[in-house]
Amino acid sequence: MDIASAKSKLIELQTTLSAYYHAEALISYDGDTAAPSATAENRAQSLGVLSELSYRLSTCAETVETLEFLDAHKEELDEREKRMVYLLLKDIRFKQKIPPEEYVEYEKLIVLAQDVWHKAKAENDFASFEPYLARIFDTVRRFAAYAKPETDPYDYWLNEFEPGTSRQTLDAFFARVRERLVPLIKRCAEKPQVDVSVLKGDFPEDAQEKLAYLLMKQLGLDLTHVGLATTEHPFTTSLGSHKDVRITTHYHTDDVSSSMYSVIHEGGHALYDTGSDDELAYTVLDGGVSMGIHESQSRFYENILGRSKAFIKFIFPKIAELFPAQTQGHTWKEFYRAVNRVEPSLIRTEADEVTYSLHVMIRYELEKAVMAGQLSVHDLPREWNRLYKEYLGVDVPDDTHGVLQDSHWSGGAIGYFPSYALGSAYGAQLYAKMRESVDTDAALARGDLSEINEWNRRHIWHFGSLKEPADLLKEALETEFDPEYYLKYLEEKVKDIYG
Amino acid sequence: MDIASAKSKLIELQTTLSAYYHAEALISYDGDTAAPSATAENRAQSLGVLSELSYRLSTCAETVETLEFLDAHKEELDEREKRMVYLLLKDIRFKQKIPPEEYVEYEKLIVLAQDVWHKAKAENDFASFEPYLARIFDTVRRFAAYAKPETDPYDYWLNEFEPGTSRQTLDAFFARVRERLVPLIKRCAEKPQVDVSVLKGDFPEDAQEKLAYLLMKQLGLDLTHVGLATTEHPFTTSLGSHKDVRITTHYHTDDVSSSMYSVIHEGGHALYDTGSDDELAYTVLDGGVSMGIHESQSRFYENILGRSKAFIKFIFPKIAELFPAQTQGHTWKEFYRAVNRVEPSLIRTEADEVTYSLHVMIRYELEKAVMAGQLSVHDLPREWNRLYKEYLGVDVPDDTHGVLQDSHWSGGAIGYFPSYALGSAYGAQLYAKMRESVDTDAALARGDLSEINEWNRRHIWHFGSLKEPADLLKEALETEFDPEYYLKYLEEKVKDIYG
Questions:
Q1: What's the CA gap between B19 and A20, in Å, rounded?
Q2: Which site in A10, A479, B81, B301 is 20 to 30 Å from B362, CA atoms measured?
Q3: How many Cβ pairs closer than 8 A exist between chain A and B?
Q4: What's the CATH number of domain A167-498, 1.10.1370.30, 3.10.20.30, 3.40.5.60, 3.90.550.10?
């Protein structure tokens, strides 16, 4: 083998894998958005075949030989090639340790599990989902043991979703968060409740869809490359490359803020994904690098910008134009206070900024316990409800509004949740850094996010997955990550709302 | 190789190909229904890769060896296996003759051409589409010459779309159709015009969508396996197997009958596709066998049932419920007359039953001339307009309502159109046969199509692609195909409407 032909094989491999991933992602997306209800098994059949093909290609002797040859000739590779080889080999090292039939079985399992979860959530029927969830936990535990037998299985997955994290770092992070936020939330509860009537009423779906598109444009998304659909649980997915990204939302006709902040959140993911350098398309470097960095962007747009005074002052008149009757007699200040109220609640995706991390912490503790074998999947609903009472003081009325609310576990994402809290904290520190050179309030007041987006593009987006998350963050911040920025930011926000 | 392992490879091959075709069909479907506007190149990239992979698999040495082994041991195969081997080898023989890079190039071309056609149609801009269409005609002519150098290229494609047909059989068929229908249309033109005001008004899309779902249910489609979406041009596609079929429609807010009959037409295709025996799923025998038989079903439901007195008497009150203001003061008889009026017009998909075959004949003559090199693609609009004047007496105002109206050519389907007219004629004869044992009028009056569907299932649908179209038809009819049934059927309908 010579270096030139190995490099050309490296590109060809990624081009082919991108096409497989396009197909696999689109089949899943179709299942969530458009497919008739009884077609999950048909999708599982095709996904099983395609994932086996992509699995085989990415682990076959020729691929391994090429990548190991390139790895042995690192000095002849540029930065991008080095990183491609590193990421592909990392993936291979993992897959080589998983028996192929178990891998394919797992792919089929999560397609079915997602279908069962949809029905189970709709019908408040945890029992029907339980055997699937138990198999998912068993599988991820087993896969982690195959991959890194010397490591704790949950540590393994935490580090997969956000390289550099572990139970140790997260226990410390959440302890600090809990210590500062729990008293803060208590103090808020003692104050008079914030009036949220400005958010409530009857908001027809078609007008909410108009608002969704308006927000997407306002965020600076290129709607010729980013699509919108509705799903049970909002998400963002890339199809083939960063040139085709889809976000989804869910309209609640009794509350205008629910879909609004889903769209801004997913829009943040889409800004990050579509912001990759064009040359990264159809390579493993295309799109965001980790869940934590991804959430740092989505929650930055959703909360730090989307719930800021300046943005709400700008956007409220546009909301009022779409919903004149519903907003009559209300002001942007009421809207600002309402979307920033602190109020322990049941649903993570609709939680306020301050209680949000406690929702995440509960999931983290539950995952940790199940992965360690200290809690059975069967007992998850009971334990879920207990922790919600303990940390948030709320009574969970049913599993639909409890343990069944999120799609993540049905998709096999065990260890993902902590990245939401980490991302929020990253975002707050990035915000402080950005403000050294960008007048964000002035930009938001003008409704023109281009300077803000440009800062994110230059420091985060355009790299795609070229850098390790910790390095990317450190370089953007020009210092170490410190959750203090996040906690201070929340304390100031609370002070502004509650005095 | 032993026969058991060859048979198991035969199944594995088809399972894998079905997954590729699922992915390819879904990427196209996504492009037509949901994708953001500037993502065609991204789809072309992935489709190029996937079609090359499926092409390689279906023509690789191992596949050929397996199929030739099975072909040499026909006596050990059952009827289904024999037919699978026959169809797969037929495809291979074709593909082996096409240089792989030309095949992949062509797949990319038609993805781009469809995108360009969409824009060209919207903007009445044939010039932008012309180079793509010229390349498509060149390619299909070249591919036919590769595949069967001794056969005329257009004959080659006619026979591909409907085995057994050629310019000779179609010239004879269309001559007979023309000879009987042209005077019939003339006689209609001399009668007082039919009042179509019952169809006209303002029909909002959301209510039309409700009507679409109602019609799908009424047809007996299983909505847990058949989906509905909107596209520029209505079509039907299967994803992976007959267990997931999608139909599309296009709502015209000024005419309730346009989407209505699109839905019934595509619903007929979907009934046929979803009616395959379950054991045929993920094999080449799954789904309808030819374009002609497919159209015999779609146009049977659309016209013979959908425009019948009995069905309209049944369905009109339901339409009136959805559109009370628009239908006020109108009767089912007016509706029956309006949807059966004979009136030369511009748009094939909205043409009446009687003039319809002339729309098809014009396309047949144009394709024949371009394929023979007697007409350039550049001159197609002029010749299109001339033939519409000659046969139908109408002036084509622009290419949007002329040569750009249909999607078929942009998708590479040259030689497809004649099957619409053939299918209509097949359907009329199948209808006559069905009525020997089924009281279709009584079934339609009850609004219960199950007996009718059962007849079609038993004689047509459940076979999938197991039989050659001509054999399938002959066995269902228990006699030879004879266009006389079709012409008589139309003459009777005209007599009923025009006296």
A1: 11
A2: B301
A3: 127
A4: 1.10.1370.30
